[in-house]
């Protein structure tokens, strides 16, 4: 999927008169580079042997390091040709952080005077806490990055462009972290006040080359809202987008949908907001139907702000799936541990209403929850057995700096290990290995170490599957499955197998098939708009 954050920044910079190039390496071609045929063949022959998988995992990691070094050389050549005023890197989990830092260091060696920016979620919930605790962060201390950006970046990107060319200083630029006078300065956080004021994101191939052809899946994440007014004890979302809920108008949301359908032949979307109000969702659905716009989309829902009475209209407008953070079926856990601010009865009512409207309904659970008992877990199983959502996601409990679970760990039975934040920065998902063999940052929940927590999470998954419920399928996966004539379970199993065995050929064929169906549906949608038709085409 394309990176909507980078496309948003490209739109802002372009509107300010700057030329922009987005290099998105999350492509089918990059998968091919990271899984050479020799390693992929060995992976496919391993057949689940844990000792062999550990060896192959290490071999794959070493190969990736060599490939990132080659990529750094290619990037230096491109910068030499393009001569940009600055380069920005998105810092994300695992390889999405370490790989970006490695590429930035390659650029710094080749271009000592180049202005280099690092931004993204990792700055907010992992790097900033390290700086606040220790006063240092090596890639900032050694000059790899000139500045880091936390939270949202659209409003300050034009100012950073002025800094890059020497027409302004970093002083007074919000959301920045930079070294000055021997210490790291952390500027106050400000958020974009009006989402309607932002220029549209850019996915044009001259700006975002990997959107050409079938390098990426053409499913666009779209900002319909930002911020979360709730105070869930575990959630990082307010750390990134703030507590003030900011809404785009339904008209502007649907304007962007229609622009993507007409300009990019993409009519499938996932809403980015983590707390989309039911009122806004209903207004968007009403606007879509009024225009006769043929789209498919998914969104997040909450039991206490949804509009079950409007679910049928939303489904008619193209809403395929809703993701609900249920977390637990125990009212005590929701109140005392999660601070969800919702009644189980309301959750049950809302999920059943979504299912009744024909919306693919995903329930997300945290297991084992802090302060979990056999009785509270049984309550969760009973809720799931009663509601029978279309899919269930299960996540382990994880403390993140800035959340109540981290700040007040003792109250929740959580203990943070020494060097936890530093370990979180380097943590990588080991997709070849069982979850209980990953090297987690050290923490304990109710006295259980990370290995035990992982084992209990896997056990919870098995118990939910024994109820006859589908697990490990998200709302965006459902959207993808709709465009390749697979059931959600088939899509999950096939893609997981292909990704874990480096079968890039199969992934490439699947992406091409999905993109072909998405383009065909979008062309039909344009024709329907021009003809005044309103019926939604079937892609199932």
Hey, roughly how much beta strand do the residues contain?
5-15%
CATH class of the largest domain: Alpha Beta
Q: Which word captures the global form?
A: globular
**Count of DSSP strands:** 15
Account of the 3D structure:
It is a single chain. This protein is 48% helix and 12% strand. The protein is an alpha/beta fold. The protein folds into 2 domains: 4-186, no CATH class; 218-497, Aldolase class I (TIM Barrel, Alpha-Beta Barrel), CATH 3.20.20. The chain is globular.
Secondary-structure blueprint:
Layout: H1 4-15, H2 28-34, H3 37-46, H4 50-82, E1 86-90, H5 95-110, E2 115-119, H6 121-134, H7 138-141, E3 147-149, H8 157-164, E4 176-180, E5 183-186, E6 220-222, E7 225-226, H9 237-241, E8 246-247, H10 250-264, E9 268-271, H11 278-291, E10 296-301, H12 311-317, E11 319-327, H13 331-338, H14 344-356, E12 360-366, H15 374-387, E13 391-395, H16 404-407, E14 414-416, H17 420-426, E15 443-445, H18 450-466, H19 475-482, H20 488-500, H21 504-531
Helix pairs in contact: 2-21, 3-4, 4-5, 6-17, 10-11, 11-12, 19-20
Characteristics:
540 residues; alpha/beta; TIM Barrel; 2 domains; five-stranded mixed β-sheet; 15 strands; six-stranded parallel β-sheet; single chain
Task: Summarize, please.
The chain has 540 residues and is α/β, with parallel strands linked by helices. It has helices spanning 4-15, 28-34, 37-46, 50-82, 95-110, 121-134, 138-141, 157-164, 237-241, 250-264, 278-291, 311-317, 331-338, 344-356, 374-387, 404-407, 420-426, 450-466, 475-482, 488-500, 504-531; strands at residues 86-90, 115-119, 147-149, 176-180, 183-186, 220-222, 225-226, 246-247, 268-271, 296-301, 319-327, 360-366, 391-395, 414-416, 443-445.
């Amino acid at each position: 999927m394309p990176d909507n954050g980078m496309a948003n920044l490209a739109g802002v910079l372009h509107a300010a008169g700057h030329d922009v190039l987005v290099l998105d390496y999350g492509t089918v071609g990059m998968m091919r580079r990271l899984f050479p045929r020799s390693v992929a063949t060995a992976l496919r022959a391993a057949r689940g042997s844990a000792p062999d998988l550990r060896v192959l995992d290490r071999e794959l990691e070493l190969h990736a390091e060599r490939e990132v070094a080659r990529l750094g050389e290619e990037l230096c050549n491109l910068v030499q040709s393009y001569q940009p005023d600055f380069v920005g890197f998105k810092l994300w989990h695992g390889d999405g952080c370490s790989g970006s830092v490695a590429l930035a260091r390659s650029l710094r060696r080749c271009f000592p005077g180049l202005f280099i920016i690092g931004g993204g979620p990792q700055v907010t919930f992992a790097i900033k806490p390290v700086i606040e605790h220790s006063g240092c962060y090596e890639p900032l201390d050694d000059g790899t990055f000139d500045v880091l950006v936390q939270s949202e970046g659209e409003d300050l990107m034009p100012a950073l462009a002025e800094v890059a060319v020497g027409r302004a200083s970093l002083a007074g630029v919000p959301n920045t972290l930079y070294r000055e006078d021997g210490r790291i300065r952390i500027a106050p956080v400000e958020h974009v006040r009006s989402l309607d004021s932002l220029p549209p994101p850019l996915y044009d191939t001259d700006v975002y080359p990997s959107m050409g052809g079938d390098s990426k899946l053409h499913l666009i994440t779209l900002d319909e809202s930002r911020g979360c007014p709730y105070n869930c004890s575990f959630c990082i979302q307010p750390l990134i987008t703030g507590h003030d809920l900011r809404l785009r108008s339904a008209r502007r949301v649907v304007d962007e949908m229609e622009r993507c359908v007409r300009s990019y032949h993409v009519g499938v979307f996932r809403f980015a907001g983590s707390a989309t109000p039911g009122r806004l969702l209903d207004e968007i659905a009403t606007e879509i139907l009024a225009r006769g716009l043929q789209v498919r989309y998914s969104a997040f829902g909450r039991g206490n702000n949804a509009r079950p009475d409007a679910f049928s209209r939303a489904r008619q407008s193209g809403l395929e799936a809703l993701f609900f953070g249920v977390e637990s079926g125990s009212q005590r856990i929701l109140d005392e541990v999660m601070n969800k601010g919702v009644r189980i009865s309301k959750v049950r009512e809302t999920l059943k209403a979504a299912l009744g409207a024909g919306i693919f309904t995903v329930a997300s659970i945290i297991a084992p929850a802090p302060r979990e008992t056999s009785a509270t877990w049984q309550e969760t199983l009973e809720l799931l057995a009663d509601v029978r959502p279309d899919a269930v996601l299960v996540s382990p409990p994880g403390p993140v700096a800035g959340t109540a679970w981290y700040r007040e760990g003792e109250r929740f039975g959580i203990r943070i290990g020494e060097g936890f934040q530093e370990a979180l920065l380097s943590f990588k998902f080991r997709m070849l290995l069982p979850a209980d063999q990953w090297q987690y940052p050290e923490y304990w929940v109710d006295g259980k170490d990370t290995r035990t927590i992982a084992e209990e999470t896997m056990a919870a998954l098995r118990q939910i599957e024994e109820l006859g419920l589908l697990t490990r399928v998200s709302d965006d996966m459902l959207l993808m499955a709709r465009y390749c004539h697979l059931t959600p379970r088939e899509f999950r199993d096939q893609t997981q197998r292909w990704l874990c065995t480096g079968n890039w050929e199969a992934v490439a064929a699947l992406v091409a098939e999905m993109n072909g169906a998405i383009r065909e549906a979008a062309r039909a949608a344009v024709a329907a708009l021009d003809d005044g038709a309103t019926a939604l085409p079937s892609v199932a």
